[in-house]
Design brief:
heterotrimer, A alpha+beta (155), B alpha+beta (765), C alpha+beta (293), A: 155 residues, alpha+beta, Ubiquitin-like (UB roll), DNA polymerase, domain 1, five-stranded mixed beta sheet, globular, B: 765 residues, Aldehyde Oxidoreductase, domain 4, Aldehyde Oxidoreductase, domain 3, 3 domains, seven-stranded mixed beta sheet, 18 helices, 30 strands, binds flavin-adenine dinucleotide, binds FE2/S2 (inorganic) cluster
Chain lengths: 155, 765, 293
């Protein structure tokens, strides 16, 4: 079946299978920042924004995205907040193997869009769906709080 | 001196990774690519008599179905180790007999994933179901039921005679005699679970045949060069026809120190002349990749009243599952990497490792040491308690010190006699001091709820830096027109940051900025050999090769300039991107390069290899502050401190990251992680819903100290950092639980129910 | 991958039921899909109810709260109508269900209709006397949520649609707390308990104790509730609380599985029930709803 959606800001037609998940559909559309880690909604390497909310695209039916807006990391590369998050993640050493990084970035981006002054706990809540087996989360949390600090919110 | 070593340069691949660039194996899809899927055995032990793929082949898009009749039974081991591998040759590509639930039965190749999946459901298999044995003790007893009937051609396992996959019995001194002279003998038994590495990127490989009829394998691996050799054997084609490319890897932790999928895509690509890709599901990761060996460890320790440890025996019984990958060497490490912490005069180390019809065990960060460290470090607390001695004092009295000889390593190499190991660098004593201070040792904080109790625990750990006399790697450095260098290494960056660290070492040695080093790692056509990313060898061993190669390149340049400037090449100083001679003349590296390439007309370039006859141990002292809910048994780790000696720290932030990540994995080992296998051999929790690894919410406050030393045999004094910090968390946490509520969990993970049960038993006794 | 033949979109509750019944083959409703895509069941087509207009949250003039079945768990954690009802107990339960991105799409209806014994939204809603609204093509039925579940993964629905649940205004004034016991921070419930206490002239009234993951269906611990009813909560209630907790533990019927043994689950019902009652009593004594933490 074909669905129409706003993909990374552009009206796009996607050829999908009725039972396909959004993760596979997006990788099929060359959004390689959307990664497969578990396909059970647990690891968050497939996190994207669906109408602005973070979702694990592996547990969202591709067909559900019809008529909605889907944003992947590819669509946010020019966004100043995303760029700050990326820079901080890199500088703080929060990127080890980097497989979880795009998903984490999306979750953190969604958090900071909604809350400019998150606490350590808020950041951890926001990352509760992003498994990282490399970092122990110390540096990703540090990076997120550093960006938040520049947004004017104290934490 | 140029200052690159010791600084937090930008990790070399971090920017592209943070941009989500298509740099991993599966981010590349050659045109015409087929999807492969594996049909797995539902039986723990069964002969595969017949596979009927008629219906499967009729599915639209299905191209091929293979099973054992289509392949040749070439015995090999899938363990990624140096040749000759110290693991039994007990594996063939497609077995005639399934040996665990999840063993390969057939493989489908199809135009689409869904076609491949549909086909799996339609393959009909005739099995002769055999009695299965999943209990390791029973497996060791039974000689009427053999999991492997064909003898191991190299005699490492007892295949064909029994289910003993590996056996070790090594003794220093005489433990039995010594125990009789001791004031106190303490014996306890500890149980370690099967756990899974759970790198977030699953196993994934693709292979195709190029226009020169060569097989190209793009794969997420820790061992590109071993893989090429293993594939050549299995596929019966020369190594020269195979090229293995390792792109970025989304974590490995030992689980990719193994050939897990590459033979299948390679075989199909050669057979079908089309690109073929195979990616594991998480379910397959937990069922058919590799696990940390489960073990039962009996510790028997004899001490004198003053706390002197006189004799120590460790008897390990382990379950390797259906195949013996790393069976001998992981179990060997359980004692070898751990027992030397307390170098008693009498040490006895015994291993019996069983084949069973359980999922396969193999390499996982720590490689046997986390099991041994758990047993030993819990046991030290138990001994202290029985002695009535302070547990910290007991450790301080006995732990290994500078200049001490590790008594066991000479007896135990990687499957052969090893080399004598002397400690030439250690800051363990300072690590203990710093750690105690940070955790507030001896000064327990109050619990935060009336029904909580609080406790502190500690553990000491040591590991190795590469495998002495075995691991080696090569590096090539080549100078370019603009003064940049290409550094090509076989060393395998799997996310730990080895490309960055090696580039730092190269820049330091050449006196050039870090960003002038262009590193390419792991393409068997272009980079020199390296054993791969395992045994904490990359910085120490491969780093040694990089430093040597860079030094040789520098000597070449010094030779050229010495002639040009008529000075002693030894007097030239390479620093800050320039070369300066004693009278003050100076040239930038770019001018040096232009001179070499266009006037002298030579290509400055050097290749060097490095091997070390030592494996200097990194050390760690780790501390946990926990609260235990006395009614539910839940354990909340409030703070975890690691003080680590990894020699010179080349990149502080990366080294800290190694420690923090290892602690997160160790925390899981202590509290939640366990691949549960029932008596029939079936994994009960093959997904992250039930196989719990730490989330951001589970992590306590982490404090990490890197207490530097300078290891004389290491590049710029460096040792290893990747594995040692995974050893201590489990015993430190379990010791803290015991400190809090007075019960010991001899079995991990210390789940709420296990802690609750232990408290109940204590109450009723 | 889920081998579906067709994906249909419903525009209203009636449309949803009609599309489901139209066939051919076996069809299922899909809301967030976070359960269905996890372990896809064999079926031919699905009917997407996320656009059927059943995702609204509403308060009636007399203070009843209506939660649309397709409302997401994230909405339940943040919407002021929900955070302000019964001390935010429903929001609290929703916030402990799954992880942040899952809650963006996972729905209340999916959680209930999925009917896992461990469904995390059930106990708190039962403790607040929720009523389910069920739509057929041409009529609607309402039944108490506690009667909605008929077994593990089984409900009274058949091929009808859950439209939403309603909570009576009176329940919104109870003090209510729920807690889930897990192995790690984010996990399936080993045990889930919700307690709601109303009061009438210094005595407990409308006592509700609901249990999850300890029986084939979420259930109320009726005997324990009775034991507490009419208790003077300004007196020393320690013994009464311990008794009620003990009784509740006797009322559940847990299984042993790879997550926990029946024995442990039962004892945890006792522990959590006791703690929650005690905390609710403290809330009452402090004169109101102390929040759901
Ligand atoms: C990573 C992860 C973690 C999770 N953690 C938890 C947890 O902690 N606690 C918990 O309880 N659950 C958890 N779940 C399970 C699940 O996400 C939730 O139960 C969720 O609320 C289901 O909602 P949904 O809309 O996604 O359901 P769907 O998958 O869309 O549907 C589930 C079932 O309900 C039926 N259905 C849906 N809506 C209706 C309706 N309106 N009328 C009739 N039938 C309907 C569907 O046909 C299907 O059978 C988790 C899931 C994931 C992926
Ligand atoms: S792949 Fe989607 S959450 Fe893991
Ligand atoms: S950096 Fe490797 S999983 Fe997060």
């Amino acid at each position: 079946m074909t669905i129409e959606l706003i993909l990374d800001g552009k009206r796009t037609a996607l050829e999908i299978l009725p039972g396909q998940n959004l993760l596979q559909a997006l990788r099929g559309a060359s959004r390689f920042s959307v990664k497969l880690g578990c396909e059970t909604g647990d690891c968050g390497s497939c996190t994207v924004l669906l109408d602005g909310e973070p979702v694990n695209s592996c547990v969202v039916a591709a067909a559900r995205a019809a008529g909605r807006s889907v944003t992947t990391l590819e669509g946010l590369l020019g966004d100043p907040l995303m760029q700050r998050l990326q820079r901080e993640l890199v500088d703080k050493g929060a990127v080890q193997c980097g497989y979880c990084s795009p998903g984490m970035l999306i979750s953190l981006y969604a958090l900071l869009k909604q809350d400019e002054a998150p606490t350590d706990r808020d950041v951890r809540e926001a990352l509760s769906g992003n498994l990282c087996r490399c970092t122990g989360y110390v540096k990703p949390v540090e990076a997120a709080l550093a960006v938040a600090a520049t947004l004017g919110g104290a934490s | 001196m140029n200052k690159v070593v010791g600084t937090n340069v930008t990790k070399i691949d971090a920017v592209k990774l943070a941009r989500g660039e298509p740099v991993f194996t599966d981010d590349h899809r050659p045109p015409g690519m087929l999807y492969a899927k594996v049909l797995r055995s539902p039986h723990a032990h069964a002969r595969i008599l017949e596979v009927d793929a008629t219906a499967a082949l009729a599915v639209d898009g299905v191209v091929d179905v293979i099973w054992h009749r289509d392949t040749r039974p070439i015995l090999h081991t899938r363990a990624g180790q140096s040749y000759p591998e110290p693991s039994p040759y007990d594996t063939v590509m497609m077995p005639e007999k399934a040996r665990f639930i999840g063993d390969r039965v057939a493989v489908v190749a199809a135009e689409t994933l869904i076609a491949a999946e549909r086909a799996l459901d339609l393959i009909e298999v005739k099995y002769e179901v055999l009695e299965a044995v999943t209990d390791m003790d029973e497996a060791l007893r039974r000689t009427d039921l053999l999991i492997h009937e064909t003898p191991d051609p190299r005699g490492i396992s007892q295949a064909g005679r029994s289910n003993l996959a590996a056996h070790i019995d090594k003794q220093v001194g005489d433990v039995d005699a010594a125990l009789k002279t001791c004031d106190l003998v303490v014996e306890r038994t500890y149980f370690l679970p099967k756990v899974q590495a759970s790198h977030i990127e699953p196993h994934v490989s693709m292979a195709w045949v190029d226009e020169d009829d060569r097989l190209i394998v793009r794969t997420s691996t820790q061992i590109p060069f071993h893989l090429r050799r293993m594939l050549a054997r299995i596929l019966e084609i020369p190594e020269a026809r195979i090229r293995v490319i390792k792109p970025r890897v989304g974590g490995g932790f030992g689980d990719k120190q193994e050939l897990v999928v590459e033979d299948l895509v390679s075989f199909l690509a050669l057979r079908l002349r089309r690109p073929v890709r195979l990616e594991f599901t998480r379910h397959e990761e937990l069922v058919a990749a590799r696990l940390r060996h489960s073990q039962r460890i009996v510790m028997t320790t004899g001490v004198m009243k003053d706390g002197t440890i006189v004799a120590n025996r460790m008897h390990v019984t382990a379950d390797t599952g259906a195949y013996g990958s790393h069976a001998l060497t992981v179990q060997g490490n359980t004692g070898q990497k751990v027992l030397p912490m307390y170098p008693a005069k009498n040490i006895h180390f015994i291993v019996d490792c069983a084949y069973t019809n359980n999922p396969i065990s193999g390499a996982f960060r720590g490689y046997g040491a986390p099991q041994g460290c758990f047993a030993l470090e819990c046991h030290i607390d138990e001994v202290a308690r029985e002695l009535g001695m302070d547990r910290l004092e007991l450790r301080k009295k006995n732990h290994i010190r500078l200049g001490d000889t590790d008594p066991l390593s000479a007896k135990l190499g990687e499957g052969k006699e090893g080399l004598v190991r002397v400690v030439h660098s250690t800051s363990l004593e300072e690590c203990i001091v710093r750690g105690c201070e940070a955790i507030g040792w001896g000064d327990k904080r109050p619990p935060t709820q009336p029904y909580f109790k609080r406790g502190l625990g500690m553990a000491l750990a040591m590991q190795g830096s590469g495998i002495a006399g075995v691991d080696w790697g090569g590096a090539t450095v080549k100078l370019n027109d603009d003064g940049s260098v290409n550094l090509t290494v076989g060393a395998t960056d799997i996310g730990q940051g080895s490309d960055t660290v090696l580039a730092q070492l190269c820049a330091e040695e050449l006196g050039i900025p870090y960003d002038k080093v262009l590193i390419l790692s792991s393409d068997t056509d272009f980079t020199p050999f390296d054993v791969g990313a395992y045994a904490s060898s990359t910085t120490y061993v491969s780093g040694g090769a990089v430093v040597k190669a860079a030094r040789r390149l520098r000597e070449q340049l010094a030779g050229l300039l010495g002639t040009k400037w008529e000075c002693d090449p030894g007097d030239l100083v390479f620093s800050e991107g320039s070369v300066t001679e004693p009278r003050g003349r100076s040239m930038t590296m770019q001018d040096v390069a232009l001179f070499a390439l266009y006037e002298a007309k030579i290509q400055p370039m050097a290749t060097e290899s490095h091997m070390s006859n030592e494996s200097p141990p990194p050390f760690a002292a780790q501390f946990a502050d926990v609260e235990v809910d006395t009614e539910t048994g839940q354990v909340f780790v409030r703070k975890f401190v690691s003080a680590v000696d990894c020699g010179t720290v080349v990149h502080p932030r990366l080294a800290e990251g190694q420690v923090e990540g290892a602690v997160a994995q160790g925390l899981g080992y202590a509290l939640w992680e366990e691949v549960l296998v029932d008596r029939a051999g079936k994994v009960l929790n093959p997904h992250f819903l039930d196989y719990k690894i730490a989330t951001a919410l589970d992590m306590p406050e982490l404090v990490t100290f890197l207490v530097e030393t300078s290891e004389p045999s290491g590049p710029y004094g460096a040792k290893a950092a990747g594995e040692v910090p995974i050893d201590g968390p489990a015993p430190a946490i379990v010791n803290a639980i015991c400190d809090a509520v007075g019960v010991r969990c001899y079995r991990i993970p210390a789940t709420p129910e296990r802690v609750w049960r232990a408290m109940k038993e204590q109450e009723s006794s | 991958m889920w081998d579906l033949k067709e994906y249909r979109y419903a525009s209203s509750p009636e449309d949803a039921v009609a599309l489901l019944r139209k066939g051919p083959g076996r069809g299922m409703f899909i809301a967030g899909g976070t359960d269905l895509l996890l372990f896809p069941p064999a079926c031919d087509f699905v009917v997407d109810v996320s656009r059927a207009g059943i995702d609204r949250l509403a308060a009636t003039p007399d203070g009843d709260l209506f939660l649309g079945a397709a409302a997401t768990l994230h909405t339940l954690t943040t919407d002021p109508l929900v955070t302000g009802f019964a001390g935010g107990a429903v929001s609290h339960a929703a916030a402990h269900c799954g992880n942040r991105p899952v809650r963006s799409t996972a729905t209340l209806g999916g959680n209930l209709c999925n009917a896992l014994p461990s469904a995390d939204m059930a106990p708190v809603l039962i403790a607040l006397d929720a009523t389910c609204y069920i739509a057929d093509v041409d009529n609607q039925e309402s039944i108490p949520l506690v009667d909605f579940f008929t077994g593990p993964r089984r409900t009274v629905l058949g091929d009808r649609l859950l439209v939403g649940v309603a909570l009576p205004a009176e329940a919104g004034r109870r003090v209510c707390r729920s807690r889930k016991l897990t192995r790690s921070a984010e996990d399936i419930s080993l045990v889930q308990v919700a307690v709601a206490l109303g009061m009438e002239g210094g005595r407990l009234d409308q006592v509700r104790i609901a249990l999850g993951a300890v029986a084939p269906v979420p259930l109320r611990a009726g005997l324990a509730e009775t034991a507490l009813t009419d208790l003077d909560y300004h007196s020393d209630c320690t013994a009464a609380v311990a008794d009620a907790a003990e009784i509740a533990a006797g009322e559940c019927d847990p299984i042993s599985d790879h997550r926990a043994s029946a024995e442990y689950r039962r004892d945890m019902v006792r522990v959590l029930t006791g703690r929650l009652i005690a905390e609710c009593l403290d809330d009452l004594r402090r004169g109101g709803n102390g929040g759901a933490a």
